[in-house]
Each structure stands twice: as C-alpha cells, then as structure tokens.
Amino acid sequence: MDFSKKLSVLKQNHLYRSRKVSESAQDTQIVINGKSVTNFCSNDYLSLANHPLVKEALKQGVDEFGVGSGASHLVSGHSRAHHNLEDALAEYTGQARTLLFSTGYSANLGIFSALKDELDWILQDKLNHASLIDGNQLSGLPLQRYLHNDMTSLKKKASKQSGQGMIVTDTVFSMDGDRAKIDDLQKIGNFSNAILMQDDAHGFGVFKPNIPKNSIYMATLGKAAGTMGAFVAGNDDFIEFLIQKSRPYIYTTAISPAICVATLKSLVLIKQGEQKSKLLANIDFFRNFSNALDLPMSNSHSAIQPLIIGGSKKALKISQSLFEQGFYVGAIRPPTVPKGTERLRITLNVNHTQSQIEQLLMCIKNAL
Ligand SMILES: Cc1ncc(COP(=O)(O)O)c(C=O)c1O
C-alpha cells in the first residue's frame, strides 16, 4: 500500500486536508501559529464554548462528578448530571424523552443501527451530512437520495416505495445554511408511510425546534451549545428502543458528566435568548452588506453563509489570502461538497462586530 503516492495525488488535486493548530480558546478572535485572526469558521455560533458562566459550570461539574464518566451508560457511567441534562433537553424540545450520545456522528449512526430491522426504504436529501449517509450505509439499509429540498423529487420517489419508510434531512444544511421544509416533509411522510428524521446540528440553539408528532429529532451540543455530545429526542418507546438496540449508544463510554453540567448552563443561556437575538442581527447585517457589495452569496438566513467559488485551487487560494489578512475562513472542497461547488464557508457568531464583518466582506470582494 503506497500511502505516499496517494497523498501526493491528493496534494496535486488540491484536496489534501491539513490542520491548523489553535493556541487559544475557541472564540471570535483566536491565535493560530502565533497569528491573531478573526474566526469566521467556527460552529460556536453563540460564543458559549468560552463563556464564563459555562466554564464555571464545567468546573463545578468536575468538583461534583469528577472528570471521566468511567463506563458506558448501561454499566455505571450514567450519572445524575447526564440524567438532568436529558430531562432539560426533553423539556426544551417539548418531547417526552431524550437520549445523550457522545457525538452527533455516533447519534446518527446509533439511530440507523437501531432501526436496521424496522425499515424497508429510506429517502435522504442529496445534501445531507456525511454522518447520515454513513449511518444509513453502515446499517445495511437501502439508501436513495432526492434532489436537495425538492418536494416534487421526494414525492415522486416516495410514491414508488412500499412498506415502512424513513425520510431523512438536515434541518439547517451544514454546507449551505438553508433550511429544510419540515412541515412539507412531514406531510409527505404521513402520506407515504414514512417516519421523518431530522438532524438539527446547525439549528439547535439558533432556531426554535420544529418537531412534528412521532418524528425523530437529533441535535448536537458541540456547535451552538458550545460543549460536546448530541441527543436524540422522541417519545418514550422510541427512546427506550434506542437504549436496547443502538450499538453506538450501548458500546461506548458516556461523555464526561462535567460536560453535561456545563451544557445545562448553555441551555439556560440559550433559553434566555440574548445571544440568539444578537446572532440573528449579525446574520441580517452580513446579508445586507454582502448584497450592497453585490457578492454572489447563497440564499441562507442561518449562521452558515457559503460563497460558491468553483474549483478547489481557487477556493484554497482565497482562503489562504484571507488568512494572511487576518480572517480565518474555511475552503470546503469535495468530497464534503459536490465537485464544482467548492466554496468559502463563512460562519457568523454572536460576538462578531459589524466592523469585522464589513472588513471580511471587503477583502472577499477584492479577492474575487
Ligand atoms: C449536520 C451534522 N450532523 C452531524 C454532525 C456530527 O456532529 P458531531 O460533530 O457532534 O459528531 C455534524 C458535524 O459536523 C453536522 O454538521
């Protein structure tokens, strides 16, 4: 196996992935390789990852529950801290119960793993997150895709299925920032004997969850909530079924209980809504200013604002040039996005100033 040759091919095609080492806490301004840059590529939309009250709660959590959970949830790792967070998330989402997972990736794998003997067909949006596709494929369940956010395409495909189905969608699309039409999806699901599953990784904490009756809702806690982990919400029987059948739930160590104490504090701040209002104002400001500059932004009203560049080499070059000018913006390339739609993925957060947003957009305008 010639890994060196494979790596060279990735480099030649501008598809090589590399990591930048951050030397400061996750925040609007971060230090990378000794250089201070404004961070426009974090999912910490509400700036809770380094919030003093969330950090304080984490420390209290460590004092009360220690650092590690010590075991999986079904052995001895399920603490009062995990349980309280599950209850608080159930109340917040208006669902009977929730179940914590270590990551969003494992929660998605966990849902498909539990449902592997229950479904005859699955239809997924063409732009769904990789973890939904991987979960589907690893479970061995049949996978079909419908055109992105296209209800006609979905209806056409659903009408050809028989047996129990599932329709799966990102709620806010991770690389495009647009939102799924949850009510329409639910109607099509009702009509075609399919349960709806949504992955609200990028909407949780920013938009009010829209969870139709008897549907499956998954959200992550490592983005707007600023900590880590994920949860699935649903009715009592479904959550109990996951506990019995979901292998990524059963066979893994529970996340740190202290993280759950910190996440409980994040949830209090999310409910107060101050961060969210400021973020929404930043999104509006960004959209108005980019319009004024005539930048070809996509139609997104979330914190994720993509600018399609087309071509990995060009996307990387602009991202690098922005970095040199003090702005950290990721270049997203295949296989994360389809070939030809390589892009800058700008993410906004509550603490960006209008001046930082203006400067970034002017630099992008010059670079194009
Ligand atoms: C839509 C979506 N689902 C799931 C995940 C996975 O979540 P986590 O990072 O908690 O594993 C992500 C993370 O990038 C995501 O964007």
Short description:
The protein has 368 residues and is of the alpha/beta class.
Q: Name the CATH superfamily classification of the largest domain.
A: Type I PLP-dependent aspartate aminotransferase-like (Major domain)
Mean of residue pLDDT values: 97
Kindly estimate the percentage of residues that lie in beta strands according to DSSP: 15-25%
Query: Which regions are unreliable across 5 or more consecutive residues at pLDDT < 50?
Result: none
Layout of strands and helices, then pairs:
Blueprint: H1 3-12, E1 29-32, E2 35-39, H2 52-65, H3 73-77, H4 80-93, E3 97-101, H5 104-114, E4 121-125, H6 130-138, E5 144-146, H7 151-158, E6 165-170, H8 182-191, E7 194-199, E8 216-220, E9 230-234, H9 236-245, H10 247-250, H11 257-272, H12 274-292, E10 304-308, H13 312-324, E11 327-328, E12 330-332, E13 343-347, H14 354-367
Parallel strand pairs: 2-11, 4-5, 4-6, 6-7, 7-8
Antiparallel strand pairs: 1-2, 3-9, 8-9, 10-13, 12-13
Q: How would you sum up this structure, described in words?
A:
The protein has 368 residues and is of the alpha/beta class. It folds into 2 domains: 14-43 and 273-367, Aspartate Aminotransferase, domain 1; 52-271, Type I PLP-dependent aspartate aminotransferase-like (Major domain) (Aspartate Aminotransferase, domain 2, 3-Layer(aba) Sandwich), CATH 3.40.640. Helices cover 43% and strands 16% of the residues. The protein has 14 helices and 13 strands. The chain has helices at residues 3-12, 52-65, 73-77, 80-93, 104-114, 130-138, 151-158, 182-191, 236-245, 247-250, 257-272, 274-292, 312-324, 354-367; strands spanning 29-32, 35-39, 97-101, 121-125, 144-146, 165-170, 194-199, 216-220, 230-234, 304-308, 327-328, 330-332, 343-347. The strands form 3 sheets. A 7-stranded mixed beta sheet has the order 3-9-8-7-6-4-5, sandwiched between helices. A 3-stranded mixed beta sheet has the order 1-2-11, covered by helices on one side. Helix 6 links the parallel strand 4 and strand 5 (144-146). It is globular. The chain starts with a helix and ends with a helix. The mean pLDDT is 97. Bound molecules: pyridoxal-5'-phosphate (PLP). Pyridoxal-5'-phosphate binds next to helix 5. Residues 103-105, 108, 129, 131, 170, 174, 199, 201-202, 220, 222, 230 line the site of pyridoxal-5'-phosphate (PLP).
